[in-house]
């Protein structure tokens, strides 16, 4: 019997690596799920499709426009994307209110509809930007809710939330991506809109630093490559 899983695929490095783990390490038939939620960096959806094509995944894109009420630098053009780095203990303006809760809920709906036994998430609690919905305790609580809230859960066959990267460093994620053949150059992690990564937003900084430390500066943003001699 085919074992199925759903992967929330943003088109970024983490979610793409998670998709590769689900397919190549854990042996699932993977369905990818992406969201058009009003993000300024819609280019990530184009990259998500490329990643899905690369791994031969069925791919759904769902419209759920949570940008209508703003509240985040990723969905509200009046809020600047920070470029000064992260600050310990401070949730940055790139946090999108309720985003993971909405996405996981829809992911569980898809998982139940296709009888998938797992829902994979690319969240990370180590080298991350301070988001409250990227923590292991959040996932544990959501798993309890999922088991109570779905028919499949009540029958003991509900999808299990899996976050294989949650306690990995960004460098280790890069190494895992390289190991599993993730086309890193086709992933998109930048918070800004545009046609190439800005290299200065929090996400770019974390990604570029990891790529350089993992010995692949050639995959870092142009900004990082141009400033390597100054770092």
Automatic annotation (TrEMBL):
Annotated positions binding Zn(2+): 190, 198, 201, 204
Record bears the keyword Oxidoreductase: no
GO molecular function, one term: ligase activity, forming carbon-nitrogen bonds
Cofactor: Zn(2+)
Listed EC numbers: 6.3.4.20
Classification via Pfam families: QueC
Residues annotated for ATP binding in this entry: 9-19
Co-factor note (free text): Binds 1 zinc ion per subunit.
CDD domains, A to Z: QueC-like
Keywords, in A-Z order: ATP-binding, Ligase, Metal-binding, Nucleotide-binding, Queuosine biosynthesis, Zinc
Domain of life from the UniProt record: Bacteria
Pathway annotation from the record: Purine metabolism; 7-cyano-7-deazaguanine biosynthesis
The reaction(s) this protein catalyses: 7-carboxy-7-carbaguanine + NH4(+) + 2 ATP = 7-cyano-7-carbaguanine + 2 AMP + 2 diphosphate + 2 H(+)
GO biological process: tRNA queuosine(34) biosynthetic process
InterPro entries tied to this protein: QueC (IPR018317), Rossmann-like_a/b/a_fold (IPR014729)
Sequence similarity: Belongs to the QueC family.
NCBIfam families named among the record's database cross-references: 7-cyano-7-deazaguanine synthase QueC
Biological role: Catalyzes the ATP-dependent conversion of 7-carboxy-7-deazaguanine (CDG) to 7-cyano-7-deazaguanine (preQ(0)).
Protein name listed in UniProt: 7-cyano-7-deazaguanine synthase
Organism encoding this protein: Deinococcus cellulosilyticus (strain DSM 18568 / NBRC 106333 / KACC 11606 / 5516J-15)
Phylogenetic placement of the source organism: Bacteria, Thermotogati, Deinococcota, Deinococci, Deinococcales
């Amino acid at each position: 019997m085919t074992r199925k899983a759903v992967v929330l695929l943003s088109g970024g490095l983490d979610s793409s690596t998670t998709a590769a783990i689900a397919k190549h390490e854990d042996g699932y038939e993977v369905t990818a799920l992406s969201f058009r939620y009003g993000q300024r960096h819609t280019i990530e959806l184009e990259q998500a499709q490329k990643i899905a094509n690369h791994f031969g995944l069925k791919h759904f894109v769902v419209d759920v426009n949570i940008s209508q009420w703003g509240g985040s630098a990723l969905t509200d053009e009046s809020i600047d994307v920070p470029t000064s780095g992260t600050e310990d203990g401070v949730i940055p303006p790139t946090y999108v209110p309720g985003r993971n809760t909405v996405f996981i809920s829809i992911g569980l709906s898809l998982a139940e509809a296709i009888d998938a036994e797992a829902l994979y998430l690319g969240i990370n609690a180590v080298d991350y930007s301070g988001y409250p919905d990227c923590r292991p305790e959040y996932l544990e609580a959501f798993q309890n809710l999922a088991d109570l809230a779905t028919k499949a859960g009540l029958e003991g066959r509900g999808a299990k939330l899996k976050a294989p990267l949650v306690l990995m460093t960004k460098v280790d994620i890069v190494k895992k991506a390289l190991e599993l053949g993730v086309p890193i150059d086709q992933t998109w992690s930048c918070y800004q809109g545009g046609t190439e990564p800005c290299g200065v937003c929090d996400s770019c900084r974390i990604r570029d630093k990891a790529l350089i430390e993992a010995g692949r500066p050639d995959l870092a943003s142009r900004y990082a490559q141009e400033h390597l001699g100054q770092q």
